[in-house]
Amino acid sequence: MTQILKEGGKTIIKTGSRIDTMNATQFEQDIQPALKDGGVDLEMDCTDLTYMASSGLRIIQKTMRTVMQLRGQFKMTNVSPEIYKVLAMTGFTQFMKVEQKKG
Amino acid sequence: MRKELCIKNQMTELEKVNQFIDEICEELGLSMELTMNLNLVMEEMVVNVISYAYPEGSDAEIELLAKSDDKELTLVLSDQGREFDPTMKEASDMSVNPALREVGGMGIFIVKNLMNKVTYQRLQGRNLLTMTKNIEN
After folding, report:
1. Domains plus CATH for chain B?
2. Which of A21, A38, A73, B134 pairs with B7 at a CA distance of 20 to 30 A?
3. Structural domain of residue A10, as residue ranges?
4. DSSP string over B64-125
5. Could you report the predicted ipTM of this complex, rounded to two decimals?
């Protein structure tokens, strides 16, 4: 389940374990408040994320676009090495900050 | 190893596809990473068939076949929908900032990247998509 946490001026979106075709629309709806309300400094915490399909990548793409229009910041943190490879393959790591899980 | 699965052309069937791939990967002793990648590949391609091969609301079946020897795992996706070759679908240019390019166009690109071989055939009114992955250690 997606959680939205506020930390000072920053908004942290904590993802669930999967963003796939079945739950991508729900995830997109869940993160909308974070994009409206002070969502200029956004962190997507992927600690629990073990699987992401292209439907998830599309939402990250749209989020990047919105944040760019708002002249804000958006980064992904605690990304697993497997998901990082998919993000690198599709060009995301070159254009946004993606931090891998430590340890 | 040889395993088959028949599903309906509905998104809710993806869970069965996921289980099917997990079972195969477990049986073959494949790594977590490869298991995730094969699940990703299968989800992308099954979603494609459900979305494009059949008119919305129609009832149809999609067949999945997995077979392997020591060297290769072959996944075959077969349906009787309209002719549709996903390998011809144009992928986005991944060197362009994702925020600036058209949304999507990543599924088939990922599949081609993660698999060693992806081929499409139209045979006796069926779409046949064959994807091969080298599993030799």
Report:
1. 2-134 (3.30.565.10)
2. B134
3. 3-100
4. EEEEE-SSEEEEEEEE-SS---GGGSPPP-TTS-TTTSPS---HHHHHHHHSSEEEEEEETT
5. 0.94
